[in-house]
Design goal:
This is Transcriptional regulator. The protein contains four helices and no strands. The chain has 88 residues and is mainly α. It has a domain of 54 residues: 434 Repressor (Amino-terminal Domain) (Orthogonal Bundle), CATH 1.10.260. The longest helix is centred in the N-terminal third of the chain and has 14 residues. The relative contact order is 0.16.
Amino acid sequence: MKITDPKALSIYLRDERRRRGLSQAKVGDLVGLRQGTVSKFESMPEKMQLDTLFRLLSALELELAVKSKGCIVRKKSSASGDKWTEEW
């Protein structure tokens, strides 16, 4: 699955948690997180720490794989300076 932003990642993890029949509290208990932390990750992932992400991946027995997108071509931006033009 291709994930391109934090919200898509949180939705995927939430759906995987639900598919496995686990509550937010149970997932949190497995890796030492509060239920509220799991809830915040699912609703506002852009505000969470990477440690939380890796704990949730561990609780759901998932792993993160990063791969090259191929040739990255940097686009010239306007006079206002360089801006990020790639998707996540």
